[in-house]
From TrEMBL, chain B:
InterPro entries xref list: DctM (IPR010656), TRAP_DctM (IPR004681)
Protein name (Swiss-Prot/TrEMBL): TRAP transporter large permease protein
Chain ranges of the TRAP C4-dicarboxylate transport system permease DctM subunit domain: 8-424
Primary location: membrane
Subunit structure: The complex comprises the extracytoplasmic solute receptor protein and the two transmembrane proteins.
Location relative to the cell: Cell inner membrane
Residue stretches spanning the membrane: 6-35, 56-73, 93-124, 136-159, 171-192, 218-242, 248-265, 277-301, 321-349, 404-425
Protein task: Part of the tripartite ATP-independent periplasmic (TRAP) transport system.
Lineage, uppermost ranks: Bacteria, Pseudomonadati, Pseudomonadota, Gammaproteobacteria, Pseudomonadales
Bilayer topology: Multi-pass membrane protein
Species: Marinobacter koreensis
PANTHER family the UniProt entry points to: SIALIC ACID TRAP TRANSPORTER PERMEASE PROTEIN SIAT-RELATED, SLL1103 PROTEIN
Keywords: Cell inner membrane, Cell membrane, Membrane, Transmembrane, Transmembrane helix, Transport
Family: Belongs to the TRAP transporter large permease family.
Automatic annotation (TrEMBL), chain C:
InterPro entries reported for this sequence: DctQ (IPR055348), TRAP_DctQ (IPR007387)
Membrane topology: Multi-pass membrane protein
Domain of life, per lineage: Bacteria
Domain Tripartite ATP-independent periplasmic transporters DctQ component: 29-156
Transmembrane segments: 12-35, 55-70, 91-114, 142-166
Compartment(s): Cell inner membrane
Role this protein plays: Part of the tripartite ATP-independent periplasmic (TRAP) transport system.
Organism this protein belongs to: Marinobacter koreensis
Family: Belongs to the TRAP transporter small permease family.
Name of the molecule in the record: TRAP transporter small permease protein
Assembly information from the UniProt record: The complex comprises the extracytoplasmic solute receptor protein and the two transmembrane proteins.
Keyword field: Cell inner membrane, Cell membrane, Membrane, Transmembrane, Transmembrane helix, Transport
Amino acid sequence: AQDTYTLRLAETWGPNFPIFGDTTKRFAKLAEEMSDGRLRIRIDSSNKHKAPFGIFDMVKAGQYDMGHSASYYWKGKVPETLFFTSMPFGMTAVEQYAWFYEGDGMKLMQEVYGPHNLLSFPGGNTGVQMGGWFRKEIKSLDDLQGLKMRIPGFAGEVFAKVGVSPTNIPPGELYTALERNTIDAVEWVGPALDLRLGFQQIADYYYTGWHEPATELQFLINKDSWNKLPKDLQAILKTAMRVSAYDMLIQSQDANAKAWATIKEKYPNVQIKHFPDSVFKAMYKANNELLKEVAAKSDLAAKIIKSQEDYLKQTRAYTNISERAYLNTMAEVE
Amino acid sequence: MTGIVMFGAALLLLMVGFPVAFTFGGVALFFGIYAQGMDLFAFMPFRIMSVMQNKVLMAVPLFIFMGVVLQRTKLAEQLLTSMGRLFGGLPGGLAISTIVVGALLAASTGVVGASVVAMGLISLPVMLAHKYDKRLSTGVICASGTLGQIVPPSIILIILGDVLGLPVGDLFRAAVGPGVVLIGLYIAYILIMTRFKPETAPAMPADHSLSRKQEIGAALLAIIPPLALIVVVLGSIFAGIATPTESSALGGVGAIVLAIIYRQFSFKMVWNAAKDTVSVTAMVFAILIGATAFSMVFSYTGGDYLLEDWLHMLPGDHWGFIILSMVVILILGFFIDFVEISFIIVPILSPVAEAMGVNMLWFAILIAMNLQTSFLTPPFGFALFYLKGVAPPQVKTIDIYKGIIPFILLQILVLAMIIIFPEWFGMTDLATY
Amino acid sequence: MRWIIKLDEWLATASKVCGWVACGAMILMALNVFYDVVARYAFNSVSIGLQEMEWHLYSVVFLLGIPYALRTDGHVRVDVLYTKWGQKTKAWVNLVGAIIFVIPFAYLIATYGYDFALDSYNMGEGSGDPGGLPYRWIIKSVIPLTAFFIGTAGLNMVTFAIRVLAGDKSYEVEHSAEGLA
Ligand code: NA
Ligand code: NA
């Protein structure tokens, strides 16, 4: 009989967190089926390990063999991990997958994670994330001055540069804080996940996204755990990760579309808004300045930024004459 | 099975009287090392870190600080005795005042450790000084200090919203009715019970130098400053000035301002208040850390899978399912805490309920009501430990265990009312499409 | 016996110092949160760094408070049997409990907590949020530090129990002063 291998996976999410949690379950099922039961994945959600943002450390130390999380959460530990989730004004999901698998993405990602005894793989995409829930309309840059917004990470830095005050509110108090105007705006994910938190009941303006055009989750694997697996199981694991990541992109599209239909029907107060051009231009400029600062601090970051910029330039030219041209045409005939 | 044996061991060892926190931690240590080896404890720093970064729990030291300052400056006593005087010759005035203050605090926090301990500091010494029965006093404090779990804002409701995929606002609105009914029943219970046993809650002695009108006037005047402080705490949340957690800091600073106004302020008072706060806070968090070690060993040795297996055996018809699932949650609440229940049990029950066409909002309120009870049920109800931790030595654990029973029964009564008459609370038991 | 008394007093001082630090952090935390609320509401000024400082201070309060509360007997006990027992029995409960529960628990958290903090130091970990605090290892190292002092406080329980057994001290004296802490 052949050996069976059980990999313990810790995920950032709670046990029945939709879409993200479905991805790990689908991944575990695929791996087990393809290996005819020789590969088992045991998933521990955040209620069990109690360390949603400790996945990196736990997998690094071998306390878990695998993790499911998002690369940009580790920016405080390893600044170069920022680039493998989604960047403001960056690539769309398809463009970014192309960068990962056909461009230099995968190679650069292993260069960042390798020194920490880790392998990282794309772990499923949310599609374009929404720009957030606002209680008042943003008509100009002035409206952003001193605006208190729950917006973490790099996008928060971009917002801060154009005058927003990023504010740290625990998730459990977000709803009350927004309802009572303790804060003015909240950035979360997209319709399917936002709907659960009830922001549509207390904020009328739902802004379109720019800061996370293609949020990619990640599978982390401890290298020692990986090396213990025979070649065929490694291939199965890789395939299962890739398929479940792709499935998440599809599921996100479906779930968000349905949730958006619900919001439109049940919450007519909600209006979709775009930031004015002046705001986008200021944020675009702020984003570029911040990237320059990051690049100046780390050669590896500079290399990744350049790779993404070059790839985006080339691939976007084609996106423009294919997808964008088609969507524009549709917009005209409808 | 390790998990089950561990519960038995913890229960026995708790009786020996070694500090609760370290009994949980120590028992976890033995069973953890026995079942999984030392390295299981490499998870502990992560679990402690998640308590450290849980800013909602910051309300615990902040509320305790407010309570200690109000107690040390005698303002709490003034508030409660004056409120008690308003009841004239009626017994139970202090207990009802405690419930009212508890309800106000409940509307500003959802952290049990914060409100039970603050209430214990504020009102237990006053009630005992006025010859209240120990059991009645501790029961009232634990019950009203736990109201924060059902009265919004509430952590239980937020977690259930997340687990069940319901908008938090809907849950908050739906919880107001049951919360108000519960508060009303607590008060009604005190009124009725004290008619039969007035000696358990003697009326405040009347001040014969004053007419009744003057007495009421003096009482109202004395109530205003400390009550205003509590209203400021609450108001700061409603006005959006502060989050619920932050509002407790306003309470602490406000209590110091009151102390200055009443010429009770000294740096020594503040330092001593800080010392009391640190000690009580440490007691609460040591229990949390001991309990997190305990639940870690429980789940990593397969306890959670065992529970899942049991739950899959629940019956399939509508009422059978509702009632049995409530009984299961109530019983589990004796042993494990609400977060574990929300994340382990609720995800198993909810698809079944959904398939039966149960109104999930109603179902969520039932669970929340039920989980509130889990803080109060002996032997592991944390609210009971917390109160014991701040109670004077003459109050024994057993007094607290016995004192809470009537209030647990009242909670079960409200739960039954929501099950049988959901329309009284503006809900239906079945989903309406 | 004389060296036991010396050790006992020395260990008690260690726990008290933890308590003083926690008290300072307690007052700073209340002021910090108060300042953040006022600054945000009245002046629309928000600092993530200061908001993170809140939980840094709060962590110091409850972590370093634990050894302090051990020395002052502030940790809650189930007293069904404990109050009925005499000094000697109480001393044995505390002696054995400290040796088999407190000290090993503290030892494990100290060892794994040290690795936890060290890893953070080696990575130069800081906050990932705009304007957040750097040097995350400092607050993480409060975990092994606390565990160390819980260990010394556990040892202190042992030395105190020995003094009680020798008839040099008794538990009532230290017990819940003023009904509180
Ligand atoms: Na987001
Ligand atoms: Na509440």
